[in-house]
Amino acid sequence: MTTFYDELAEAQLAGGTLSRDDALAILRSPDEDLLALVAAGARLRRAAFGNDVKVNYLVNLKSGLCPEDCGYCSQRLGSKSDILKYSWLSEQETTKQAGIGIAAGASRICLVASGRGPSNRDIDRVTGMVDRLKTDHPQVEVCVCLGLLKEGQAERLRDAGADAYNHNLNTSESRYDDICSTHGFDDRVQTVGMAQEAGLSACSGLIVGMGESDEELVDAMFALRDLGGDSIPVNFLMPFDGTPLEDTWLLTPAHCIRILALARFACPTTEVRMAGGREMHLRSLQPLGLHLANSLFLGDYLTSEGQEAKADLDLIRDNGFRVLGAEDEGADTGHGDKALALRQRGAGTTIAPNA
């Protein structure tokens, strides 16, 4: 029997655009429709990406001490969160950490630094890291996340070999001032545009579970669709102690699946990534999430731990998917968990979700 969600999938496969009413229907679908919703969304995911899963790996270049007051972030101004705080990693340490992620199966390395935005000296430092990574691992994509960009900085990152720039919208324009007061929604949109104009692939997503309404969530998702980015990371709020959103637990596993389905139906050919907090909020429904999302982070995040890399890789294989590039590049997917454990002990840094 053809369901409402099958009809939505057919419309998207035919080149249609998801309407606001249909987007809200996805978010408000009953629990008994969950498998039908996932099955329909999985058709879109497989049509665009087959059974591949892109594995991403975060390297936290600089942690804490951020002057911005984003309410969700453990690195924010005035945060009381118990996290590691350190200045820039060396180029050698950055390359070492990235190499561990690549050996475990990652085809994209994400270089992330806390702060409002980079100085030109910071860009000098990061372009050196990018150049080194692309020289040592030319097949690997490098995505950079440094905050708000200034004129000419995106071009310098591109010239050094960076493939993508991450800057999340995080929430809807109407709700943004409730989340952050030190910069605005338009500042984020402008930075994504600067990256695109420089020829970098735009990676921009959102954080869900911050008290947004269904209407605000649709607004945020449609704003991401309008940006035309190449990837959408969906972060699930991790309510860090010592932040304004501590003890904010508003998500259920089923609703997280509906949010991933919304991303897939709204942007059927865009990379959708299960990002920070998926282990905490999707829990036993992570396998269903992979039938909608085609990308995830391996191991830890910026200031919080994820699940073991082996569990991530088993999740992919056990559900009939393959790690993108694993066969071609000979990724060592059998020892990813051991490698990540060694990194955590040796580097003295952990990695964060809501970048």
From TrEMBL:
Complex and partners: Homodimer.
Catalytic activity: (4R,5S)-dethiobiotin + (sulfur carrier)-SH + 2 reduced [2Fe-2S]-[ferredoxin] + 2 S-adenosyl-L-methionine = (sulfur carrier)-H + biotin + 2 5'-deoxyadenosine + 2 L-methionine + 2 oxidized [2Fe-2S]-[ferredoxin]
Pathway the protein acts in: Cofactor biosynthesis; biotin biosynthesis; biotin from 7,8-diaminononanoate: step 2/2
Family that this chain belongs to: Belongs to the radical SAM superfamily. Biotin synthase family.
EC number: 2.8.1.6
SMART domains: BATS, Elp3
An annotated GO BP: biotin biosynthetic process
SUPFAM superfamilies the UniProt entry points to: Radical SAM enzymes (SSF102114)
GO function terms (MF aspect): 2 iron, 2 sulfur cluster binding; 4 iron, 4 sulfur cluster binding; biotin synthase activity; iron ion binding
Taxonomy, superkingdom: Bacteria
Gene name of the encoded protein: bioB
Cofactor note: Binds 1 [2Fe-2S] cluster. The cluster is coordinated with 3 cysteines and 1 arginine.
Domain Radical SAM core: 51-278
General function of this protein: Catalyzes the conversion of dethiobiotin (DTB) to biotin by the insertion of a sulfur atom into dethiobiotin via a radical-based mechanism.
Organism field: Knoellia subterranea KCTC 19937
Keywords, sorted A to Z: 2Fe-2S, 4Fe-4S, Biotin biosynthesis, Iron, Iron-sulfur, Metal-binding, S-adenosyl-L-methionine, Transferase
Binding residue positions for [2Fe-2S] cluster: 110, 143, 203, 273
Annotated positions binding [4Fe-4S] cluster: 66, 70, 73
UniProt cofactor(s): [2Fe-2S] cluster; [4Fe-4S] cluster
Protein name, per record: Biotin synthase
